[in-house]
Amino acid sequence: MSWTAPIDPVNKKPLKVSQLCEICHCRKAIIKRPKNLQKICKECFFYVFETEIHNTIVNNKLFYKGERVAVGASGGKDSTVLCYIMKLLNERHNYGIDIQLLSIDEGIVGYRDDSLATVKRNQKQYGLPLEIVSYKELYNWTMDEIVAVAGIRNSCTYCGVFRRQALDRGAQRLGINHIVTGHNADDMAETVLMNILRGDVARLEKSTSIITSSSGSPIKRSKPFKYTYQKEIVLYAHYKKLDYFSTECTYAPEAFRGTARELMKNLEGIRPSCIIDIIHSGENLVLKEKKKRIVSNQSEQQAKKQFADGNRCERCNYLSSNKICKGCILLEGLEKSRASVSIECDSANDGAARTLRTLERLSF
Ligand SMILES: Nc1ncnc2c1ncn2[C@@H]1O[C@H](COP(=O)(O)OP(=O)(O)OP(=O)(O)O)[C@@H](O)[C@H]1O
């Protein structure tokens, strides 16, 4: 039996063997997979992309039937693809989960207001309910107001602490105990690298967990994109013509993270598999006994410091291993700064800066 080369749908000429998809061998390859440089067609790309995420979900038993799940939806490429994929896989594989979108409005004019407009369109496109929780309603501060008193350099510290709490509070409001986020393989590898560079062994061991939760919290978080490359997420969004918001946050990433990100990108350029390799290295790292003892002694000391009232912040009732939670400490510094702004303009950053130094001394 003789083999007939498939015809190129564009120029109607027979395709050369080297032009064929390396998976199906019958369509023209138009994508070079960033993960392994395999040349494949669009249909096979969709198939492998979706199947790998489904395998991650199943192998790690991320969901159970009947579970209610909130997708952290920021309108960016990762969470938009996550919303789309979660709905698609839930229907295709009958996970039996109830999906809702949860967005946090940090109050960043020209960035979050525009990205939330995208989430609202996604809500209609995917037919999923949406809950929006704002920093202003929770903390009486927007990120723009915070940056005005605390400076742009510390913006990620404030935003990270407040967003984490806000997502938990939003989920609690919805009566949901599971939040999925669009953190991808690049984010994971970057975090492993950062913890190595900082020598932060305690965080390093946990940094590759696909499911996490704060101690005592009923709310868990998971990352279905743990092994998914950012470049593939962008390609998928592009070929599926998904509606997402692509502008970077007005407040640049923390300098150290930015440098780690740059380093990862350079490494990926030379060796694409290094993203997954770093994650695997992180997963297989085991702390030496001596280190484990030091870390667990620290945890014991921390446990002793915990107050008896069910680990709740005295001020806001949020889960905390200290009397006052990290968010309330930050808010206190901000309030002091706000007060000092009205008294003496030169000392505007004093309260916020002192609060950050206090936070650095505390261990959480
Ligand atoms: N304002 C927000 N509201 C809800 N979820 C959020 C918000 N910001 C971040 N998240 C969640 O945390 C994940 C990681 O966010 P981060 O800002 O670090 O990355 P990102 O690459 O910009 O993500 P994305 O492309 O989804 O915006 C997001 O994919 C999303 O699931």
What does this structure look like?
This is Cytoplasmic tRNA 2-thiolation protein 1. Pfam families: ATP_bind_3, zn-ribbon_14. It is found in: Cytoplasm. One of its GO terms (cellular component) is mitochondrion. Residues 69-253 form the tRNA(Ile)-lysidine/2-thiocytidine synthase N-terminal domain. The protein is α/β, with parallel strands linked by helices and 364 residues long. Helix content is 51%, strand content 9%. The chain contains 14 helices and 8 strands. The protein has helices at 42-59, 77-93, 112-126, 135-139, 143-150, 155-174, 185-198, 201-206, 230-239, 255-270, 274-284, 289-305, 326-343, 350-361; strands spanning 31-32, 39-40, 68-72, 98-105, 130-134, 178-180, 211-213, 220-222. The strands form 2 sheets. Strands 5-4-3-6-8-7 form a 6-stranded mixed β-sheet. Strands 1-2 form a two-stranded antiparallel ribbon. β4 (98-105), α3 (112-126) and β5 (130-134) form a beta-alpha-beta unit. α2 (77-93) crosses α9 and α7 (185-198) packs across α10. The longest helix has 20 residues, at 155-174. Residues 345-349 have low confidence and may be disordered.
Question: What are the key terms here?
Answer:
Cytoplasmic tRNA 2-thiolation protein 1, nucleotide-binding, alpha/beta, 14 helices, 8 strands, globular, 364 residues, 51% helix, Rossmann-like_a/b/a_fold, RNA-binding
